[in-house]
From TrEMBL:
Keywords on record: Kinase, Transferase
Protein name: Sugar kinase of the NBD/HSP70 family, may contain an N-terminal HTH domain
Origin organism lineage: Bacteria, Bacillati, Actinomycetota, Actinomycetes, Jatrophihabitantales
Natural source organism: Jatrophihabitans endophyticus
Keyword NADP included in the entry's annotation: no
Protein family (similarity comment): Belongs to the ROK (NagC/XylR) family.
InterPro entries, A to Z: ATPase_NBD, ROK, ROK_cs, WH-like_DNA-bd_sf, WH_DNA-bd_sf
UniProt keyword Kinase present: yes
Amino acid sequence: MRADYPRPMARPRTATGLPAAAGPRGVAAAVGEDRAAWGTGLSDVLALFRSSDSLTRADVMAVTGLSRTTVGQRLDALLAADLVTATAGGSTGGRPAERFRFHPERGVLLACDVGATAFRAALCDLSGAVLDESAHVMDVSRGPRPVLKAVDTRFATLLRRAGRAPADVLGIGLDVPGPVDFATGRVVSPPIMTDWDGFDIPGWFAERYAAPVLVDKDVNAMAVGERQECYPDVDDLMLVKIGTGVGSGLIAGGRVHRGADGAAGDIGHIQLGEGAADAAAGDPPECRCGNRGCVEAYAGGWALVRDLQAAGRDVSTVDDAVNAIRSGDIAAQRLLRTSGRILGRAIADAVNLVNPRVVAVGGQLAHVDEQLLAGIREVVYRRSLPLATRDLLIVRSRLDPRAGVVGLAHLLADELFTPARLAALVGR
């Protein structure tokens, strides 16, 4: 897609007489609030506009309970920053009340979903809507600098096609197929991401863009995208990705559950142990993480390639394995059924532990054959508690393969409009 955008409007003076360039400190002083309280109040007001088509000042007062003066100050600040714009109001015979709406074209966001063998880059508006995107083949094991350079080249192309400049970028999001320390944006001991361990991804982009950089695990972003676009009324969701590897992202209580250190949801490295004999014969296989008997070592795409090669099939990639399954290869289909049962054991444990309403299954192998989902469902409903499965949906991802960039866009938009970030943005 190709999109053209209006340029940001000039910043007017606020109703207090302070020029918009005075920023949040000037407005905060005018209304007698400290900077932190002002930023929080401003974020709360903007959140109303982000979730509504349009509102009047009276609407904001009614919802927030704030005074006319306070609403006016905060609305003026948002207008000055071009995050809210005035729109025509409907007439009921008298003078129509002035209405305002969120202005998602104020800037753009850049997002990139980096997988094991390819990445998808996207240009998004401030509401999280994807405006343009492109997918490209590249092995993540080539290392951070070659991969990020390729990503940045795609970002530049997307900006050029939209008639945007780097200065219009208000946030950058990247997800990767490995463990991420969310606070620092650094990858930690990833099994398949050669040379990425500890690499400063936000710092790499800081040399090119004056915008915050968010880095997360790919399945977390996918879970956010799936929930936001397909199940907005579901507060507890699990996204299981079955591609080259196996991972899962968790939404609990409407928020991403990352755990204490960002390691939550690493379902692919649950070790099945000796009890796996009923699902897969032979000694526990070695996993890429160095352990034996992990779920991924049985059911991941790379493990499927390994086992097909051992069966004498001419395959070298997960795509080759997918083609073998689709062509009706008996060995490939048998291995897929085994993968489904193995995955079902791990997902059943997760269902008992976190009780999601929806389990969405995505990744290359999820869309190949109904037998995979059938195997998962069979084991989950047999092994999980009746209460946990009473209303449980186990479905294919409806958004895959775009779930990652869509989720990143929404994560970025939410991060950009936190009180501290918003105060800095309005203060520009």
